[in-house]
Amino acid sequence: MNTLAEENYLKSIYHLSVNATSVSTNQLAALLNTKASSVTDMLKKLAEKELINYTPYQGVSLTAAGEKIAVNIIRKHRLWEYFLVEKLDFKWDQVHEMAEELEHISSNELIDRLDKFMEYPKFDPHGDPIPDCNGLFKIHNLKPVSSIGINEGGVICGVRDHSKAYLQYLEKQSLTIGKKVTVAEIIEFDHSMVLHTEDNTIQISREVANNLLIAL
Amino acid sequence: MNTLAEENYLKSIYHLSVNATSVSTNQLAALLNTKASSVTDMLKKLAEKELINYTPYQGVSLTAAGEKIAVNIIRKHRLWEYFLVEKLDFKWDQVHEMAEELEHISSNELIDRLDKFMEYPKFDPHGDPIPDCNGLFKIHNLKPVSSIGINEGGVICGVRDHSKAYLQYLEKQSLTIGKKVTVAEIIEFDHSMVLHTEDNTIQISREVANNLLIAL
DNA sequence: AATGAAATTTAGACTTGTCTAAATATATTA
DNA sequence: TAATATATTTAGACAAGTCTAAATTTCATT
Ligand SMILES: [Mn+2]
Ligand SMILES: [Mn+2]
Ligand SMILES: [Mn+2]
Ligand SMILES: [Mn+2]
Q1: Which of A76, A175, B6, B70 has the fewest CB atoms within 10 Å, i.e. is most exposed?
Q2: In what order do the strands lie in the sheet with B201-204?
Q3: pTM over 0.90
Q4: Domain A4-62: which topology?
Q5: Interatomic separation, CA of residue A25 and C1' of nucleotide D30, rounded (Å)
Q6: Is the CB of A42 under 7 A from strand D?
């Protein structure tokens, strides 16, 4: 249907579109680890296929058809990640690279059966919502820990940074999905925070707090 | 590591090597659905990488390194097929195309964990042996039903033809892996055979008998 | 409004894997 | 053994996806 490269471009445009109406060539080049000139070439092809709205120099957005494909790729990515963690016992910091390959396995019947086999999970191991077979999913309204005040708190439901280093750090601190945390203290000097969890007390940097998402 | 195309060539050379010491360009072209000239190009690349022994005009064979890669691809293919049938409830005639894609997922850790998850199956849904993580597997010594005589029989343990049409036909006749069959009659005119199974009696053509493998 | 910087596109090239058509080598068979 | 048929390789081309370097457009600043 679509090539692996096309699918990756559509997915990247989708992710970058979350915080903007239009996505630039350079943003895509950075995310996809390619050169801007390569991006321009591909944008022409995707526009030709009517998967994106592209006006030279003006950035791109997905068409309805393009968004449908992008969401389907994301559905596959997250379901495979869930499978790897829940069925094959991988850690949440180990699955992304494998899912980057698995998301391009074409069969929708396969992914729908995998979904059923795992009893229709709603969130992937990183707390991201899994679109259902119609592409529908709820957008959790989450806040970074860094945005809340003393004695406020909530349940960890997601992360902004999906890097191995960040996920491993959180794991070590037991700051994992589902854990309840409360802000006990905010250090004025560097905005680091002292958190109370069910088990213990930990101090995290502003950087860490910024990327840790909770539901109030 | 190796490209998808390279992996498919190595796998095809492996399969064709079962019945011969050397594999020809045209044999590969036929199996891979390409032109002989394309095959020649790829053989040069694989020889350059020392994955095959190639002398122009004289056919090819796998080196030890090439065979190792080929067996690993086959291990992945068969484990994924087993997964699709045993865990996701696909029929044995539905899984080959999906496995053709899944076999190229690179992680060996993934496949080893999948193997463990399924409790180390020894045969795929078509009765083919699954190599273990060291590439080792037992070669069943099977015979086609067409080669045995009246009142002889055995247990169905494999098929030579993996086509959808053939597998669906066998399924409909309940001639599936594990079933015990005995030859009740051989029709002289066209060499078709009457088989007794546990449940009933069926007549199959020579063509069907030729592709159905049993252990005595 | 003019100028310089930054972003983007174009031009031309390269790699992988494929193709057709032509050339060459091997096998067959008379 | 010579002619013919078949198998294989070579030559030249093409599509996809990428790159570097150069040209162009847009943006920011004066
Ligand atoms: Mn991921
Ligand atoms: Mn994820
Ligand atoms: Mn198969
Ligand atoms: Mn099989």
Answers
A1: B6
A2: B143-144, B212-215, B153-159, B180-186, B193-197, B201-204
A3: yes
A4: Arc Repressor Mutant, subunit A (1.10.10)
A5: 28
A6: yes
